[in-house]
Amino acid sequence: MKLALDTVVIRCDGRNPGEEPINDIYNNSFATHPASRCKRPLGVLILIKTCFQNKQKRDALRDTWANSKYLEQLDVPVEYAFILGHGVYNDISVKEKFMEEVTNHQDIIIANFVDTYRNNTFKTLAGLHWGLEYCKDYEFLFMVDDDMYVSLHNLIGFLRQPRKYPKRGNRKVNGKYEFEIPGRQIFWSGFVYNEPVFPKRDRKNKWFITWDEYPFKTFPSLVPGAAIIYSRNVTQQFVLASPFVKHLNLDDVYLSLVAAKLCIKPFPITELILNKWNWNPKRSKKDKPYQEKNAIAVHGLETPPKLIQFWKKYEQGILS
Question: Where does the record say this protein resides (predicted)?
Fold first, then answer.
């Protein structure tokens, strides 16, 4: 992929970068990738972060919101793919079963890195690279974890008019549906913490980060990596800027640092529920069905069967 570095602004003070890249550890090489996923222009490309042992979660998504028949019913072209790194297999038969899944479904991208939780940043950057390299024409990239319920109708409704959502508007122009903010513009969106987020310094903590890795008391505007929307413009800028930002194992922190260097502010999604019971505090518990109805994505459904149950409840119109 050849991109001109001068097409991206990686500073806020008006000066050219001038420095050499400080990390070159992110690559865009892939062991396998489903080329058929990007044969047409897309409104939304969805990349689902997973790991090889999560087949039950992948199957749950294939049976629900990532089901091909369901995607065909949308009035905006949408495609999905799972992305992961190389697994550490204790049994060759496990690897063989996984590779059989790769062959059968043709929806899995294997990037060339070892897949561990501490390597989530590699997974995210691989996804951004893959989208630019193999999907030449998409408006938005939605990167999401494999344990998330996603309402594609709500996602598309949000992208059409993010400033007005959840109020609905078809936004038809010349007989076609269009996005209020096209992919060529700057748009980076997800759940945004309103309060300062402090680094975890306890080594036993899952999100531990040392003072050497991050020598500041708070993070910049933090967007959790569980569900993030990128316009194509922003995807390109993140890929170009990433070599100039020190690597961190925490992908959401790393992305927030890249965004800060690019002077990109996140657009908050209030209808993104990162924990199923973490409802908007401004609304009463009586409004839970309203929040579910308008939710773009929901986390905290605990198991694939519960996600499927939630999907059926939504699709049967109980929440509408």
Answer: Golgi apparatus membrane
Per-residue pLDDT in tens (0 to 9) along the chain, 320 residues = 333 333 444 444 444 544 677 777 776 789 998 988 998 999 999 999 999 999 999 999 999 999 998 999 898 999 999 999 998 887 888 889 999 999 999 999 999 999 988 899 999 999 999 999 999 899 999 999 999 999 999 999 999 888 888 876 554 444 445 677 766 789 999 998 878 888 888 888 888 888 888 888 888 888 999 999 999 999 999 999 999 898 998 999 999 999 999 999 999 988 877 665 444 445 445 555 556 778 899 887 878 998 998 888 877 554 44
User: 139 lies in a domain?
Assistant: yes
- Residues 277 and 166: their CA atoms lie apart, in Å, by 20
Give the integer Cα–Cα distance in Å for 249 and 200: 13
**Which structural domain range is residue 116 located in?**
12-271
CATH of the domain at 32: 3.90.550
On whether residue 194 sits in a domain, the answer given is: yes
- Cβ-based neighbour number of residue 248 at 10 Å: 17
Q: Per the structure, how many domains does the chain have?
A: 1
| 107 in Cβ contact with 34 (< 8 Å) | yes
CB neighbour burial string for 173-206, b if at least 16 within 10 angstroms, e if fewer: eeeeeebbbebeeebbbbbbeeeebebeeeeeee
* Amino acid at the residue 58: R
- What does the alpha-carbon distance between residue 242 and residue 266 come to, in Å, rounded to a whole number? 17
